[in-house]
Amino acid sequence: MKCKGAERGRGAVSAGQNRGLIGVIALAGSLVALAVWAPSAHGQELAQDVADTEPLGESVKPWSNEAEASYVKTGGNSSASTLALSNRFAYNFTYSELLFDVEFMRASTTTTFRSNVDGELVEEELSDTSAERYEIAGSYRQNILSNMFWYARGDWYRNRFSGVSSRASGGGGVGYRFVESPTTLFVGELGVALTNESLTNDTSETFVDIRGALEGRFRITDSTDFEFVVSAADNVQNTENLRVKFNAAISVAVSNTLALRVGYLLDYRNDPIVQIIEGDEGVAPVSYTANKSDSMFLVSLVVKF
């Protein structure tokens, strides 16, 4: 049997949706204009605010990098392996910062099929990918006031098993640091993004998202940290297409550069992908709907440098 993409009907965007889209684009333009215009409009008052702001980085060096790796392999009568890698790079300028994140996960299984061929045992091994997830994101934040900033962000995502062949988006907005200290960080962002999404059912769409995010880090003990990131994006032309990502972890430092981390990742999609499976000739096709959520629980080794 073979899979063929199901065409999802796409009606013309109503006049109300057009007005909503124009409003979102106007909001995006206003955010960019605010970032460019604010320093000159407020003159010495804003300059003094920024001058009083401490540089974002607390370490002596302006950059930091955190790599995380997890690997599980089973062997014997059955064989399976899972590899998960991630990396977060940050570079702190005096009143701005550059962030770059990479996430990779791939799981594969090997199954042995045994048969009797003319009285002889024949074994055949078949290896297949059972799960995969890739995500790359980069963002730039520039201070407007001591705790407020504007940001520009781009990201790419792929998870074929949830029905997403490729999703790329780029946009910007404003953010606010509610708390920032050596032991606590709590940051929020709100903005818009232009997104192009290609699905495994051979459909694709370009649309505008409204995006919000919260990021937190809390020092529990001298060697233990809790951190989380939750973000949500919603298609302004189809509000059923809500997507949420939640990532939380507890890290325990082993040394200045090594730590053990226990983490949980959840990807949620309110409008899951529908796939059509064609049958043999004369057999009616059937369809199935992907699950709304994918989750991953990991125990990893973290290297900081």
CATH class: Mainly Beta
Structure summary, number of beta strands: 15
Helix percent band: 10-25%
Give me the strand/helix succession: EHEEEEEEEEEEEEEE
Enumerate the spans where pLDDT stays under 50 for 5 or more consecutive residues.
1-25, 34-59
Task: Please tell me what the overall shape is.
Answer: flat
CATH architecture, by name, is Beta Barrel
CATH fold title: Porin
User: Helical region count?
Assistant: 1
The percentage of residues in β strands lies in: over 45%
Main pleated-sheet profile: 12 strands, antiparallel, barrel
**Average residue-wise pLDDT:** 83
Distance between the first and last residues' Cα: 50 Å
Number of structural units classed as domains: 1
* Rounded Rg: 24 Å
Return the structural class.
mainly beta
Q: What is the strand arrangement across the widest sheet?
A: 2-3-4-5-6-7-8-9-10-11-12-15
What is this structure, in a nutshell?
The protein has 305 residues and is mostly beta strands. The protein is built from 1 helix and 15 strands. The chain has one helix at 15-51, and strands at residues 2-4, 63-74, 79-92, 96-117, 120-143, 148-159, 164-180, 184-199, 204-221, 224-235, 238-253, 258-269, 274-278, 286-289, 293-304.
